[in-house]
Amino acid sequence: MSTDNKYMQLALEHAELGRGNVSPNPLVGCVIVKDDKVIATGYHKEFGGPHAEVDAISKVDGDLKGCTVYVTLEPCTHHGKTPPCADLLIEKKPDRVVIAMEDPNPIVKGNGISALQGNGIETSVGILVEEAMVLNRVFITNMIEKRPFVTAKFATTLDGFIAQRDHESKWISCEDSRIDVHKFRSEIDAIMVGSGTVRQDNPMLDVRLAKGRNPKRVVLASHLQLPLSSHLLKDENANENTIIYCTNEAQNIKLVDQLRSEGLNVKSISKNSKGKVDVSLALRDLLKEYHIGHIMLEGGAKLFSEFYELDFIDEIITYQSPKILGSGISPFEYIRPLHLSDDSRFRLAKTDVIDTDIKAVWARK
Amino acid sequence: MSTDNKYMQLALEHAELGRGNVSPNPLVGCVIVKDDKVIATGYHKEFGGPHAEVDAISKVDGDLKGCTVYVTLEPCTHHGKTPPCADLLIEKKPDRVVIAMEDPNPIVKGNGISALQGNGIETSVGILVEEAMVLNRVFITNMIEKRPFVTAKFATTLDGFIAQRDHESKWISCEDSRIDVHKFRSEIDAIMVGSGTVRQDNPMLDVRLAKGRNPKRVVLASHLQLPLSSHLLKDENANENTIIYCTNEAQNIKLVDQLRSEGLNVKSISKNSKGKVDVSLALRDLLKEYHIGHIMLEGGAKLFSEFYELDFIDEIITYQSPKILGSGISPFEYIRPLHLSDDSRFRLAKTDVIDTDIKAVWARK
Q1: pTM, whole model, 2 decimals?
Q2: What CATH fold (topology level) applies to the domain B147-364?
Q3: Pick the residue with more confidence: A205 or B20?
């Protein structure tokens, strides 16, 4: 591995330390090297907090003459919650800045690199760029698509079903798989379910089996067919953590008022041609109003199918158990049937054995 | 690892060298050790050929005084195609014989060990017994169940389907997965399909994508609804390698005569309560008359479902691809639906990534 790759790898590892706390900001790591020795490291620790470059530079006395700065994302040039990092680097005068990837944010893209170069600082761009893009796939989707990154998660039987035909789905996967899901919940910003899943499963969608914070719970309920007694509407986190999307039709007005009077967060938005909540509007709203950069779909088949048809699924995580059902509910059974001659939108990115199950991550091609 | 485990592991590796050539005999390996040095190795190379002990002992001059003999299966005591190995060992007088597992064959079981002990040879039994049982799971099933070991193999989409609803199933898995299947075909004795698969897919069921011999092709066709032009009935291997099972009903007699006059091997056997071929009789016949120790089911869903209901599936091999269909044919869709509260008969034994797919082996618990 080249020297640049070695230090960029270290910067990527530091970036990873911010996971779960920075969304919808990017994960960024920074390593400062002098005479082939690491003299400081830093990373973006929390949403709105100091950027990775600031964190690392704060640990070095004086300027950065003779230093190379490795940073996983192009230094920013805009005044956001913190001053521009490019200005700080220009002030500290490192010999060279090595950057994994350009900032996909249109108001930064390329400007940080130009600013450094215009001030006589040598730059190298594209070191471990693929790894950096995987690391910040959520941020990239947020910036380019203006919506949260969407992970669809489901457990299936050996023969591919996510529930019995009568909707019973407890428990397909093993306890260790469920713990793994709870750990993942603590790293993302929100979980989304359809109203059918609330009625049939009455899920809590919290982090009980692992340590970490609870994500927001988002319910797509076009016609507000939700039992008032369900966990998502009644538990101690309901007012703070539950967001309900329904259509802005007249027939919903009374129910919206009733739920709001209970302190619940109900948002009525335009309907699509099928009379259901316009998912693209809901997603934009979640990113813009609630800073939800990464959302996980946890069912049911109608939700998975609608997101698939709209091409809003960025990643699928499956847990396959050894159970056999024979017949049951398939994850995408409401889509217009596809053909084997069609290319898949997904590719296998990762597999793990979790006790009795196979966990697989399928990434968007 | 203890010394015994080390040499038994070596004996197991030698046993493996016979794979594909000894069925329905067991895979057996033998290692002879003197003064902590391996002085000879042997294995059972082909059906009816010398046993592993004979193979190894033939490489040593004189007797085996001072030697320990490691053998993966209890030495035989019966006069079969070759003289009893226990007698040969008694004649050669090793100090000790280490045995992984007892012979499950009721006419040997325990007798080989008793014979050695009765003649003053120290014996140790059960070294790496689990590995030996996995190695000889086919032979054990043959001996105890009096039928071939049954592997059900299917490729599925990400969402669990083995074909489109219109039965189109080319190609779910990637080319490397298909090569892997052909390699496996060369190691087993026969492939079985239902008549629907012959009509819909017209498969060749041979070893084209890998090196090795072709297995027999067995068709369950209760009412002989098979196109005369299909590969399995017409290709150059049809008379030699295809076995067709139908019921012995009067309505089949004319078709049976016609197929036999074409040189085809048609066996008419008793029907079950549903008027179909009695699968248990067909399986016994395959082991007894054709020495088929290991058979692979390659579809379709009716065949998989019938074998599942009869509890004749010993192993499932799945290849899961990244394709999505939405709806399609499920592998066990003809079984009486099961419940998630039911225990699975299977456990995950092995996973591999094969190019774009996940290969998983699910073993009978």
Answers
A1: 0.91
A2: Dihydrofolate Reductase, subunit A (3.40.430)
A3: A205
